[in-house]
């Protein structure tokens, strides 16, 4: 233990004599570790964000989508044959699923981008035309007013429920929005309710807070004259078997469509496919960030070679008074590893500060893996790039080293 302590003290004393060079040498490792940790934090944050979005929809949810969305390998694929127009679901499809499945919810969905206007203000967002069960299946809760009902769907009511952000943009807040009129796509609707803020909308997903919700039957007038649906949600009870329902739904759809014309996807399949994509992207980004670590390691090797040259006489004197090749090797290797660790710890601390600040606006999260990788990589670089100059110092002949000028 005393031996290790002596070597550490010697290394720190040498750093103290060349503070600027020590800082500049460690800077390359600091930047590399910072890049890698930030990229890993981004990947972890995105994964947590996506999981949270799916979990907020409930666990027993199935998506009926046009085309072959997820392949047998669990990865997203292009969907239907590009030479053939993709299928769309109609009221007959919706009725067949509703009639044939003994589940809690079968919810059709038609969506389109709209710009909503009211009182001279405008707000861009998404139109969600669906049944009254949409609010239950997506866990959307009312803050003010009421949700539209099955009766509103039956009579094609010109009633609309709006997202929280829509109310703020058009009316300055939730209070006073209920009872007002809004218009989009040359149609006018009466606001009967405002939803509680839910979030969502990141990375291409729908923003529920920017949405306008109307009965799907009302959309048939002008908005959706073909009476088609892009998606049908299937909500299974907590005690229900999602896999069984998936098989039943596929059997019903195969009576009308070909196998590759549609997909019935579980939430876990969606989540796994998305997570695998982010994992690949994150691995590529980390590999790119690691280039700066290699550059930093080469910088450490150059400095250590310069140290060996500058301290040749010192090495000779130490060898002459009894230091072994192993002692010299360990001394220079210790200095190399310490330089890397200084940069690694500095990069890690800086990354933690950045993540703490940015996480309020963008999903970033540091986990134990990031810390282990940061310290492990910086130590490994110190060993790898330090061993060559350390061996050169250890192999110097004592008498020639003492005579070196």
| Estimated share of beta-strand residues | 15-25%
Number of strands: 12
> How many domains, as an integer?
2
Low-confidence stretches: 79-84
From the spread of the alpha carbons, the general shape counts as elongated
Task: Please give the share of residues in helix.
Answer: 40-55%
| C-alpha termini separation | 35 Å
Structural class by secondary-structure content: alpha+beta
Compressed to H and E, one letter per element, the order equals HHEEHEEHEHEHEEEHEEHEHHHHH
CA radius of gyration is 32 Å
Quaternary form: single chain
Biggest β-sheet strands, sense, barrel: 10 strands, mixed
Mean pLDDT: 79
Tell me what you see in this structure:
This protein has 405 residues and is of the alpha+beta class. The chain folds into two domains: 2-52 and 274-403, no CATH class; 88-256, no CATH class. Helix content is 53%, strand content 17%. The protein is built from 13 helices and twelve strands. It has helices spanning 2-17, 19-55, 91-100, 134-137, 150-154, 164-171, 216-219, 242-253, 267-310, 312-320, 325-358, 368-394, 398-403; strands at residues 61-66, 89-90, 105-118, 121-130, 142-145, 159-162, 181-184, 187-195, 211-215, 228-229, 231-235, 262-266. Strands 1, 3, 4, 5, 6, 7, 8, 9, 11 and 12 form a ten-stranded mixed β-sheet that branches. It has a two-stranded antiparallel ribbon with strand order 2-10. A hairpin with a 2-residue loop joins strand 3 (105-118) and strand 4. Helix 2 crosses helix 11 (325-358) and helix 3 crosses helix 8 (242-253). It is elongated. The protein starts with a helix and ends with a helix. Mean pLDDT is 79; it is low at 79-84.
């Amino acid at each position: 233990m005393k031996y290790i302590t002596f070597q550490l003290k010697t290394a720190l004393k040498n750093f103290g004599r060349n503070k600027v060079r020590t800082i500049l040498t460690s800077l390359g490792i600091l930047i590399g570790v910072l890049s890698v940790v930030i990229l890993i934090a981004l990947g972890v944050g995105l994964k947590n964000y996506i999981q949270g979005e799916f979990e907020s929809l409930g666990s027993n949810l199935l998506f009926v989508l046009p085309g072959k969305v997820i392949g047998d390998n669990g990865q997203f694929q292009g969907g239907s044959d590009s030479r053939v127009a993709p299928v769309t679901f109609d009221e007959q499809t919706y009725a067949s699923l509703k009639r044939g499945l003994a589940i809690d919810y079968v919810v059709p969905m038609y969506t389109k981008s709209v710009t909503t206007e009211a009182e001279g203000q405008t707000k861009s967002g998404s139109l969600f035309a669906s049944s009254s069960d949409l609010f239950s299946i997506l866990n959307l809760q009312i803050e003010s007013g009421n949700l539209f009902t099955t009766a509103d769907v039956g009579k094609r009511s010109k009633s609309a429920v709006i997202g929280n952000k829509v109310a703020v943009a058009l009316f300055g807040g939730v209070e006073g929005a209920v009872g007002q009129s809004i218009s989009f796509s040359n149609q006018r609707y009466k606001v009967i309710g405002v939803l509680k803020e839910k979030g969502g909308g990141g990375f291409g997903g729908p923003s529920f807070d920017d949405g306008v919700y109307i009965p799907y039957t009302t959309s048939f007038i002008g908005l959706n004259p073909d009476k088609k649906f892009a998606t049908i949600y299937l909500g299974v009870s907590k005690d229900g078997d999602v896999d069984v329902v998936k098989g039943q739904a596929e059997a019903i759809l195969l009576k009308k469509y070909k196998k590759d014309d549609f997909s019935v996807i579980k939430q876990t399949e969606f989540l796994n496919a998305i997570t695998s994509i982010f994992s690949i992207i994150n691995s590529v980004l980390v590999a790119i960030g690691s280039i700066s670590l290699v550059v930093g390691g080469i910088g450490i090797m150059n400095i250590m070679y310069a140290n060996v040259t500058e301290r040749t006489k010192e090495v000779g004197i130490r060898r002459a008074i009894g230091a072994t090749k192993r002692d010299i090797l360990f001394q220079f290797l210790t200095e190399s590893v310490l330089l890397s660790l200084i940069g690694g710890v500095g990069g890690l601390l800086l990354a933690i500060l950045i993540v703490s600040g940015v996480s309020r606006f963008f999903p970033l999260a540091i986990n134990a893996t990031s810390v282990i990788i940061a310290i492990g990589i910086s130590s490994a670089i110190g060993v790898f790039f330090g061993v060559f100059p350390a061996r050169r110092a250890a192999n110097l002949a004592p008498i020639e080293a003492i005579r070196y000028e």
